[in-house]
Design a protein that fits this description.
alpha/beta; Rossmann fold; four-stranded antiparallel β-sheet; 10 strands; globular; binds adenosine-5'-triphosphate; binds magnesium ion
């Protein structure tokens, strides 16, 4: 068992307090949801937990060991992987090469990286896409490639920043099944950021709700559904977030 923990993380951007003393913990095999309105600070927290953004104060630790100051690739080698809100694949490279590059970056030989990339594409369910150019893929396939790439080297943790954005209900269901397998079969700890709150409440063991950089609620899905604070935070944005949470809570 492993745990990745953010403790009292604050981030200030030129006067804007993007995060204020945020605590969040993910353990092996667990799916933790991170939700909140646009601009709540979700991506900033993922950036801090993966070494892309230094915290103004607070610390991130892996199994009790402080990770502060480590670069993204150092955290990746220690088993903390992520996907990006905008995809960020190597668009000109074939799908398989996107995964292979990551494998080589993690220290594998080229042959070993190719072998793992092939096995990973198969595991994620996109083996037939191996030789397609990544930049020409439909959005939903691109997401799966990004997840496959993040899973190279079997990280202990993977942080997924809005993997279901733009997906149809059926596509989101397929993605849910994949995320369950990442936690259940790989034993990976998953942090899932999603605007699709229904998907989060369906999948996650534990949910953290951010609003304006502050944790306004934490708990199991039932607690989140019943929370007046969560309902209130989403009031102004329900129209553009497609929020089943409001219906569920009626
Ligand atoms: N590099 C930066 N410099 C200045 N301000 C930033 C920077 N990154 C984020 N912010 C601000 O910090 C706040 C939190 O942004 P963040 O992207 O973390 O929110 P989010 O919850 O991921 O939103 P979304 O749901 O739209 O992706 C926002 O007000 C944003 O404008
Ligand atoms: Mg974001």
């Amino acid at each position: 068992m492993s745990d990745l923990s953010a403790d009292k993380i604050s981030v200030a951007f030129a006067g804007l307090r993007a995060l204020s003393e945020v605590d969040l913990k993910v353990t092996s095999g667990q799916i933790v949801g991170l939700i909140g309105p646009n601009g709540a600070g979700k991506t900033t927290l993922v950036n801090v937990m993966t070494g892309f953004q230094p915290a103004t104060s607070g610390s991130v630790s892996l199994d009790g060991q402080d990770l502060s100051g480590l670069k993204p690739h150092e955290l990746r080698r220690r088993g903390v992987a992520r996907t990006f809100q905008g995809g960020r694949l190597f668009r000109d490279l074939a799908v398989i090469d996107n995964l292979e590059v990551t494998g080589v970056g993690l220290g594998l030989s080229r042959a070993a990286a190719i072998a793992e990339a092939e096995a990973m594409l198969d595991w994620v369910g996109i083996a037939p896409l191996a030789n397609r150019v990544a930049g020409a893929l439909p959005y939903t396939d691109e997401r799966r490639v990004a997840i496959g790439r993040a899973l190279m080297g079997k990280p202990a943790f993977v942080l997924l920043d809005e993997p279901a954005a733009g997906m149809s209900a059926t596509e989101a269901q397929d993605l849910s099944a994949l995320i369950r397998r990442i936690a259940g079969e790989m034993g990976c700890g998953v942090l899932l950021i999603e605007h699709n709150v229904g998907l989060v409440l369906d999948l996650c063991h534990h949910v953290v709700v951010l609003d304006s950089g502050v944790v306004i609620e934490t708990g199991d899905p039932a607690t989140i559904r019943a929370s007046e604070r969560v309902r209130h935070a989403y009031m102004g944005t329900a129209a553009d977030t497609n929020l089943p949470v409001l219906e569920v809570m009626e």
